[in-house]
Amino acid sequence: MPDLAVYPINREHLDALTGALGIWQHASGERPNSEFGYCTDDVARALVVDMLHARELGWEAVRPTASRSIRFLRGAFDPAAGRFRNFRGRDGSWSLEPGSEDCQGRALLALASGIGASADAQLAGDARELLAAAMPMAGSLRALRAISSALIACDLALDVQSLPPDLRARTVVAFERLAAALWDPFAALEPGSDWPWPEPVLTYENALLPRALLVAGRRLDNDALRTTGRRVLAWLIRVQTTPGGTFSPIGSDAWWRRGGTRSRFDQQPIEATATILACEEAFRQSGDAADLVAIEAAYAWFLGTNDLGVPVAVVDSGSCHDGLTSAGVNRNQGAESTLMWLTALEHVRQLRRETGAPSPNHDPRSGVSVVMGSRP
């Protein structure tokens, strides 16, 4: 593995971005921009990061923000519609615009992470209750990324030993339906195609789909799902790796339409993190060292091993720029980007620990270092 450092946890920027109700969506430079309010997508991601940080820092370090996120998700859920609302103004009012399907999947994923909070029975119970109320919605999802997030959420929930039998049974049914809904468009593709993707355009968070295929294949012991997941992930890695081995994700300027020219910029942090998480699932199933190489390349993208050779993450504050443009980094450091960096860091930290790889700037005798912001 490359000798890229696994940095201490730094919650300074995360705390600065956190308002009274949750994490602000956007920032102007490094300063939070409250004009755009909050969104369920980012609050859900923030809860996942808190769960990751709790492993290293202990529960009390994240209890206030995790509890705030659960309260936000409870307020976001509309029982009449059985779905989550997404956008919330800085005054606390909810937008009448229906929440996107991606928002539904991310909320389910956060709640599934929260039910594992064994150190906080109240939070785990609240997450479980809300997950049970929202689970019927999972079967109505049609967007592939939302289906993938919901499927991974079901997988996490089924790993919780204390999951009530009735919720477990409903989660199993939802998982099987989601797996079929994800598999069908891949199964319909022409065998041997040079475009092994069920959409005409490669857009955002692409590696989430093969990750979900791999998860489904593991739980269902289905070789077709596993094989397709690995094949599609390998293709994504190949088309997003330069001849020199640098991770170069599809840019959001114009994405990549089949038969067209792929967009090089704006490269987004979510692509690097999605790749890390997908390759982590692949590695845990196969033990293939090539997956670790891909993980390290995506991690290195944050730290400057990218098309421009400039760091995207700001390790001194625990923040991350909103993208890599043709002229350099996007100077804004909003919620999604920061949460993607913090998520990537913790998954790489855990993998390095499990595989015995060194963390060059970390003395294992000193324990885990952390920098906290001043906000509660």
Write the layout of secondary structure elements.
Blueprint: E1 9-10, H1 12-17, E2 24-28, E3 31-39, H2 40-57, H3 63-76, E4 77-78, E5 83-84, E6 87-88, H4 101-114, H5 121-138, H6 144-158, H7 165-187, E7 201-202, H8 208-220, H9 223-239, E8 256-257, H10 269-286, H11 289-303, E9 313-314, E10 319-320, E11 324-325, E12 328-329, H12 335-355, E13 370-371
Parallel strand pairs: 1-13
Antiparallel strand pairs: 2-3, 3-6, 4-5, 7-8, 9-10, 11-12
Task: Give a verbal description of the structure.
Mean pLDDT is 93; it is low at 359-376. The chain is built from 12 helices and 13 strands. The chain is globular. With 376 residues, it is mainly alpha-helical. It has a single domain (9-371), classed as Alpha/alpha barrel (Glycosyltransferase), CATH 1.50.10.10. α2 (40-57) runs antiparallel to α3. 49% of the residues are buried. A 3-stranded antiparallel beta sheet has the order 2-3-6.
Identify the notable features of this structure and list them briefly.
376 residues, mainly alpha, Glycosyltransferase, three-stranded antiparallel beta sheet, two-stranded parallel ribbon, 12 helices, disordered C terminus
Dominant shape: globular
Strand content: 5-15%
Low-confidence stretches: 359-376
CATH topology description: Glycosyltransferase
Rg for CA atoms: 20 Å
Order of helices and strands: EHEEHHEEEHHHHEHHEHHEEEEHE
Order the strands across the largest sheet as they lie in space.
2-3-6
Helix percentage: 40-55%
Structural class by secondary-structure content: mainly alpha
Separate helix tally: 12
How many distinct beta strands?
Answer: 13
Q: What CATH architecture label applies? A: Alpha/alpha barrel
